[in-house]
Specification:
- Its main location: mitochondrion.
- It comes from Rhipicephalus pulchellus (Yellow backed tick).
- Pfam families: NDUF_B4.
- It is a single-pass membrane protein.
- This protein is 50% helix and 0% strand.
- By secondary structure, it is mainly alpha-helical.
- Among the domains are: 13-46; 81-109; 111-147, no CATH class.
- The model is unreliable at 142-147 (pLDDT under 50).
């Protein structure tokens, strides 16, 4: 059973005879344009593989629509700018601050214990707690007690 497009004109409307005639003419023109479009779309000799039909009016319509609706879903506001900053740059700055503070803590020499700098790189400082006697014996020696 073929699909039938329902009529856009109802019998019980309050349209005049002239308005109904204009609506019917527009519907007829629309049907003719649709048939022509489908004929061109399925013509294997015109488009090679078929399927794509360049319609300059459609391109103009899409270009005008996209250009006029740039801010349909997005409007730049101060709140949006702050959200962008908080989601993009703030995590990098916070991470950079913590890495910097950790490196400064590692690089600054301790007044109590003198250990070579290489012994602290990529090793946690909280893995072993030393008493004063152990600290004194580790001065100027290579440390291997941290994993």
């Amino acid at each position: 059973m073929a699909y039938r497009v329902p009529s856009s004109i109802r019998v019980e409307t309050d349209l005049t005879h002239e308005e109904k005639r204009l609506i019917q003419e527009r519907a007829k023109l629309k049907a003719q344009l649709r048939q022509e479009y489908l004929r061109q779309l399925t013509d294997p000799h015109k488009h090679g593989s078929g399927g794509y039909l360049f319609d300059p009016q459609m391109m103009r319509f899409q270009a005008a629509r996209s250009h006029s609706m740039i801010f349909e879903h997005f409007r730049p506001t101060p709140k949006g700018g702050l959200q962008f900053f908080a989601a993009t740059f703030l995590p990098m700055l916070v991470l950079g601050y913590f890495v910097y503070k950790d490196r400064v803590r590692i690089v600054t020499p301790s007044p109590v214990i003198k250990l070579p700098f290489a012994s602290f790189l990529l090793k946690p400082l909280t893995c072993v707690s030393l008493n004063s006697f152990q600290r004194a014996s580790l001065v100027n020696r290579k440390v291997t007690w941290c994993l």
